[in-house]
Amino acid sequence: MSGRLFVVSGPSGVGKGTLIARARAEVPRLELATSATTRPMRPSEQQGREYHFLSPEEFQRRLQGGEFLEHVEFAGHRYGTLRSEVERRLADGSNVILEIDVPGAREIERQLPDSVLVFIAPPDVGDLEQRLIGRGTNSPQDIATRLRIARSELEAGTDFRYVIVNDDVERAASQLTELIRAALDEETR
Ligand code: ADP
Ligand code: 5GP
Asked: What is the domain-level CATH number for residue 173?
């Protein structure tokens, strides 16, 4: 038996983490893969919980060892999906969810074409800025970088098979939950 891979993408601050947490509270056996990153840990974060926080040298060593399914550079730091977080779980029949950027999502789709790609879009770019400021985890300079990246991600995102606009959080979360349920139902039919 093999599980399904869901890839949730979209600009930083759009609400990916928020919507995924809500969907996971509703759908059993939907496991979030913990990515690796070289970016510094935020005060609210814990090693191995939000990310596997690695030094640039350790990230490079693992990359050379073939440990990543995909990896990118984002806003000056490296991020990557570890095979160890995904492959065994899928083989055991668990469903896995990735929260990654747009180029990473495309790479996963190329390698695993059965993946379900979902793009989360903001009502508009102004909302994105307000959410990033409101979250209180990024410097003004980092927010500016993320908004610049967001503009190109928003263009690329319209090509995704599924697009959810995160205007009202309740509505968007139930749309994501229903989409996941429908994909899993399809699997068992
Ligand atoms: P991402 O994981 O995409 O970077 P987060 O889930 O951290 O984004 O959300 C960024 C901020 O926006 C958080 O403070 C979150 O509470 C808030 N947020 C999420 N969804 C909505 C929404 N629909 N309306 C208003 N604020 C939201
Ligand atoms: P943050 O620094 O806010 O945690 O994440 C920045 C961006 O990197 C987000 O868009 C997030 O989805 C993306 N990201 C996190 N982990 C990975 C990963 O493993 N691969 C890719 N491609 N992007 C990731």
From this structure: 3.40.50.300
